[in-house]
């Protein structure tokens, strides 16, 4: 089935879903593909015809995605709102890879020749940095509200930049590291404010504003540019 889908579009993938009630198309900005989501019992011919109708839509969505930004030597990436150049020094005599974040340079000293391996190391380093900064920010904001956070986890989430569970566990995407500071700060403030108000009412937004640097700028940026955060790395 899936190779027949590729005749409709090379960017199309099939996802049979037990939960889906109707057919739908879902853009995956990280994998740069569109999923044809089909309920388990749906008729595949109907599903294929449905996808065919949206052939141009699929291409438009894929074309509109920002170019991927790999973690290679010389590439400039935004980190916490500041442009930082990745500099990779290869030295076969080194025992291990070391990475250091300087004000404008991400310095990588490595004995690895394989670009993918180096890129993986950079990604792990950035995830750690993101976790450290987001965690500290969440704890600080929560303390201002007299709240304690059960746990802050930072991972590679797909659909949401942040979430707050009923039990007080907060979760964030590590990719917020590539967002401007106001945007990252806003996403953290948003979830922390949910520790007090589990809704999006007026009181919630007032609180969110109180514990953010500039929540309107941050919110607008996430709405207009959030999808761009998926283009970093591989
Ligand atoms: Zn919310």
What is the CATH topology assignment of the largest domain? Answer: Zincin-like
The CATH superfamily label of the largest domain reads Metalloproteases ("zincins"), catalytic domain
Low-confidence stretches: none
Number of strands: 10
Bound molecules: zinc ion
Outline: flat
Helix content: 25-40%
Order of helices and strands: HEEEHHEEEEHEEEHHH
Which CATH class of the largest domain?
Alpha Beta
**How would you write the strand order of the largest sheet?**
4-5-7-6
Cα(first) to Cα(last) distance is 27 Å
Cα gyration radius (Å): 21 Å
The total domain count is: 2
Strand content: 15-25%
Q: Mean pLDDT, as a whole number?
A: 93
SSE class: alpha/beta
Largest beta sheet, briefly? 4 strands, mixed
CATH architecture of the largest domain: 2-Layer Sandwich
What is the helix tally?
7
Task: Describe this protein's structure.
The chain has 234 residues and is α/β, with parallel strands linked by helices. Helix content is 38%, strand content 23%. It contains seven helices and ten strands. The chain has helices at residues 2-8, 44-53, 55-63, 115-144, 181-193, 202-210, 215-225; strands at residues 12-17, 24-28, 33-39, 76-79, 82-90, 98-101, 105-110, 151-155, 162-164, 169-173. The strands form three sheets. The protein has a four-stranded mixed sheet, with helices on one face. A three-stranded mixed sheet has the order 1-3-2. It has a three-stranded mixed sheet with strand order 8-10-9, covered by helices on one side. The two termini are 27 Å apart. The mean pLDDT is 93. The structure holds zinc ion (ZN).
């Amino acid at each position: 089935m899936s190779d027949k889908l590729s005749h409709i579009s090379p960017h199309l993938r099939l996802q049979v879903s037990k939960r889906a009630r109707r057919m739908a198309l879902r853009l995956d900005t990280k994998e740069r593909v569109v999923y044809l989501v089909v309920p388990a019992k749906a008729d595949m011919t109907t599903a294929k015809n449905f996808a065919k109708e949206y052939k141009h839509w699929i291409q438009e969505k894929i074309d509109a995605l920002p170019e991927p930004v790999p973690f290679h030597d010389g590439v400039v990436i935004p980190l916490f709102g500041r442009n930082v150049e990745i500099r990779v020094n290869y030295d076969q005599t080194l025992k291990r890879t070391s990475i250091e974040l300087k004000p404008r340079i991400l310095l990588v000293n490595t004995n690895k020749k394989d670009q993918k391996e180096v890129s993986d190391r950079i990604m792990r380093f950035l995830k750690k940095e993101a976790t450290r900064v987001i965690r500290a920010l969440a704890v600080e904001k929560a303390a201002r509200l007299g709240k304690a956070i059960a746990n802050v986890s930072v991972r590679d989430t797909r659909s949401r930049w942040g979430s707050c569970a009923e039990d007080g566990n907060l979760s964030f995407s590590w990719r917020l590291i590539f967002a401007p500071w106001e945007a990252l700060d806003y996403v953290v403030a948003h979830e922390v404010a949910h520790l007090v108000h589990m809704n999006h009412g007026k009181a919630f937004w007032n609180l969110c504003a109180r514990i953010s640097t500039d929540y309107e700028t941050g919110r607008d940026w996430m709405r207009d540019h959030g999808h761009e955060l998926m283009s970093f790395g591989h």
